[in-house]
Amino acid sequence: MENRPEAPFGRVATAVITPFTAEGPIDYAAFWRLVRHLAANATETIVVSGTTGESPTLSKPEKMALFAAAVDAAAGKIKVVAGGANNDTAESIEFALAAADAGVDGVMAVTPYYSKPPQRGIVAHMHAIADATDLPVMIYNIPGRTATLIEIDTLVEVCQHPNVVAVKDAVDDLDWSRRSIEALPEGIAVYSGSDELTKDLVEAGAVGVVSVTSHLAGREIASMVNAVIEGDMQKANQLHDLLIPLNHALFSEPNPMPLKGALTAYWDSVGVPRLPLMPAETETVESVGSALDAINEYREL
């Protein structure tokens, strides 16, 4: 695609999990190691306390401590974006200000969930958050979790705010996403919010992905994104096909259940999800392992 926007958070951002100890608190040592591992494997930005980070079960003090730990572990080598804003506008503003004080590089604002506001309420909510801080803001459009889609005209209006620089598109409707990318103001970067659709969205003009799968295959994802941008579709399609079994396995149960089970099995212990999520089924973790075996074979070629 010609005139592709700059990628303010790099090509591969990772929606990072939150490790827990066996007793339940956050395992900050494991989190620190994980951030360093991601930075060494093609992640350019981490999104902390998002859906994958189990933000609904994290207290505000826990989130702030995670942001501080992430900034420390990132050590300026990768960026840190604060997730975890919610459907309460006033609380989301306080959250953005506190995250900025923690030293993060950006904030992610999610569509207000559960209350199902009108489209004009979404604009007011997003602009209020963007007004509260000088940090760059990523808008998270994920109707499958929030029950409300940010319509294209609304998204265009939201993105008129000078602090809004990016959209994480988890709409899971490729035709809609293509029309959205075409309609957005010049310079707004779109990131795929679905690992399965990353190749197609980058072909349509997205700049990269906010990924879950990058915990385990960050270099392959980065290579696929770069191949699309460089026009090497043979390589891009090969990597896309290679990643399909891993993507399917990681989302065969609610995220991040499969990912946490797989990281503990194939990387290092990160604990289990907090209720109401549950540990992944053994068969799920094994299916992730089988997909990783194929990727490891590719790496050895």
Q: How would you describe the overall organization of this protein?
A:
With 301 residues, the protein is α/β, with parallel strands linked by helices. The protein has one domain (12-229): Alpha-Beta Barrel (TIM Barrel). The chain has helices at 28-39, 60-74, 89-101, 119-132, 143-146, 152-158, 174-183, 198-204, 214-230, 233-250, 257-266, 282-299, and strands at 12-15, 45-48, 79-82, 106-110, 137-141, 164-169, 189-192, 208-211. It has an 8-stranded parallel beta barrel with strand order 1-2-3-4-5-6-7-8, surrounded by 6 helices.
Distance between the termini: 30 Å
The assigned structural class equals alpha/beta
Q: Give the C-level CATH assignment.
A: Alpha Beta
Number of domains: 1
Task: Provide the CATH superfamily.
Answer: Aldolase class I
Q: What is the CATH architecture term? A: Alpha-Beta Barrel
> What order do the helices and strands follow?
EHEHEHEHEHHEHEHEHHHH
How many strands, what sense, and barrel or not for the largest sheet? 8 strands, parallel, barrel
Percentage of β-strand residues = 5-15%
Task: Please tally the β strands and state the result.
Answer: 8
CATH topology: TIM Barrel
What characteristic shape results from the CA principal axes?
globular
Radius of gyration: 18 Å
Report the helical percentage.
40-55%
